[in-house]
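We treat protein structure as text, and this decision shapes the records that our systems exchange. This encoding replaces a full spatial description with a residue-level series of whole-number codes. Below, we set out a record of this kind in full and without editing:
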Amino acid sequence: MQYIRQSQELKPTTQSSIQMSSVVTLSLILAHAVAAMANPVARAACNPSLAGSGVSIASGSLELGYSSSVAGAVIISQPLSATSPEFIAEATTVSNGGFLLKDSNQDNHAAGLFCTNVNGSLELETAVSPEDGTQGWGFVCSTCNAVTTGLIASGCNVVSGFSGKCLQIGSAVGDAVAIATCSDLGAGPQYFDVYVG
């Protein structure tokens, strides 16, 4: 270590303290930046307007779906059919900017089944009253379009109003869709394109 003249410069112990303080400050700044990037809301560009629309939520060649329109049916990964929406987005009061995702195969007069966070798993269930966030889903996207049919948003995280975690599509047809800690990869199983039709 080179000693600096004490009369005009900082003492070695003071210099070490400043260097250590700078390292700690830089570490805190980097930790905060990483946390902000991992939070989909922190990097959000837009929230699509989906209320009342039939929606398909796709990642690559797969989309969210279900094997049957019955209470308790698991939300699964199925082949993409962007022209045939699986859900109808209904506005919710619990999740800021969020939606309820109603099974589109239910009769219009039926009470409906909704995509629901049931102990960390996704299932179709009847409406929860009062709303508690388990059926609320926020869409945080990198791009939104003002369209009534077709691709309305891309690069979207679908975030649970209950847990703040993201939906994650399975890797194969029939795999259960998971709820996982949101990651900041920019692409992959937590990023979706949303189609309306």
Observations:
- The CA atoms of residues 142 and 155 lie 5 Å apart.
- The first helix runs from residue 12 to 38.
